[in-house]
């Protein structure tokens, strides 16, 4: 793909992408290559079949950008680079020690090796950063509450990995259009997408996600507090390097191995009542929706809006412990 062919076919969307020279160069940069070794699903990759990488997702978003706006160089580059700041295991320990993948990504855009590549092709890193911050609004990041290309790929890729998708993604893509900075479709296809949004929300609030994520966040804090890798070093590790760092630290070694090889011993309960174990809170549940023939679901498909609204009832507070 980055070795000289200058093209790839995304296996999910079955879109052929002819890479621009800047995209080929970026795919040879360490911050982009590293994403192949970071699980998109984070710690829940330990307990689910969602084993695809952040790079696979980033290439999927690039494929969508190239499909809808093939000549929009800035949008395509931003699609490829939108996740370069992710920590090991993606969102799993976002916020621990103040770590923020958006800020880290902005820093990588303005540093070597990414900045020289962009500038060599006449692209201002600041313009990429602004686009990723939603200035101006584009289909990549979209409007709050509306389905963006980033989330579209996430929901469909996750749905396929989890056996939740009954529709051929390439066929699904053929029914989608862009309406300004949002994805728009017909009512039937909107129902498919809303079902995928719901499936993703239920996954995030399930044992499969809450258990391993809560343990890994504790391990990351302990690793930082125990004189392991510095925060600056930690954020650039791959998943394998992160697990190796946990194995090398006496304060994290045993629980890290237990998580990887005996996750079935984790017990998760909803609620905030005091008890054994530790508390864990999910920050939010994403409920973005496509437009239906250019109108919001509230206007065009109220039953779908109600389906999304019910996701607000999913639990966000949990108690987690290891079985005795």
From TrEMBL:
It comes from the Bacteria. One of its GO terms (biological process) is dGTP catabolic process. GO terms for molecular function: dGTPase activity. CDD domains: HDc. Residues 54-155 form the HD domain. This is HD domain-containing protein. It comes from Kitasatospora setae (strain ATCC 33774 / DSM 43861 / JCM 3304 / KCC A-0304 / NBRC 14216 / KM-6054) (Streptomyces setae).
């Amino acid at each position: 793909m980055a070795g000289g062919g200058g093209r790839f076919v995304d296996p999910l969307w079955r879109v052929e992408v002819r890479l621009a020279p800047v995209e080929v160069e970026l795919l040879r940069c360490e911050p982009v290559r590293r994403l192949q070794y970071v699980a998109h699903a984070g710690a829940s990759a330990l307990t689910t079949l969602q084993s695809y990488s952040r790079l696979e997702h980033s290439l999927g978003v690039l494929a969508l950008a190239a499909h809808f706006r093939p000549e929009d160089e800035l949008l395509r580059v931003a699609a490829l680079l939108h996740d370069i700041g992710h920590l090991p295991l993606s969102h799993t320990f976002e916020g621990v020690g103040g770590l923020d993948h958006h800020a880290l990504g902005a820093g990588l855009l303005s540093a070597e090796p990414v900045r020289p590549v962009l500038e060599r092709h006449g692209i201002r890193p600041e313009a990429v950063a602004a686009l990723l911050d939603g200035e101006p609004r584009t289909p990549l990041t979209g409007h709050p509450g509306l389905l963006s290309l980033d989330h579209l790929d996430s929901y469909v890729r996750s749905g396929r990995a989890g056996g939740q998708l009954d529709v051929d993604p390439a066929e699904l893509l053929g029914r989608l259009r862009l309406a300004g900075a949002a994805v728009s479709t017909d009512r039937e296809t909107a129902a498919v997408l809303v079902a995928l949004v719901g499936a993703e929300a239920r996954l995030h609030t399930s044992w499969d996600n809450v258990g391993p994520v809560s343990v890994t966040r504790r391990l990351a804090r302990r690793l930082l507090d125990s004189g392991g890798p510095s925060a600056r070093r930690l954020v650039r590790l791959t998943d394998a390097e992160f697990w190796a760092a946990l194995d090398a630290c006496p304060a994290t070694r045993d629980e890290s191995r237990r998580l990887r090889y005996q996750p079935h011993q984790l017990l998760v309960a909803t609620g905030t009542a005091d008890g054994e174990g530790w508390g864990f809170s999910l920050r939010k549940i994403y409920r973005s929706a496509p437009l239906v023939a250019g109108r919001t679901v509230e206007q065009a498909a109220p039953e779908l809006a109600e389906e999304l609204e019910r996701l607000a009832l999913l639990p966000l507070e949990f108690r987690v412990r290891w079985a005795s």
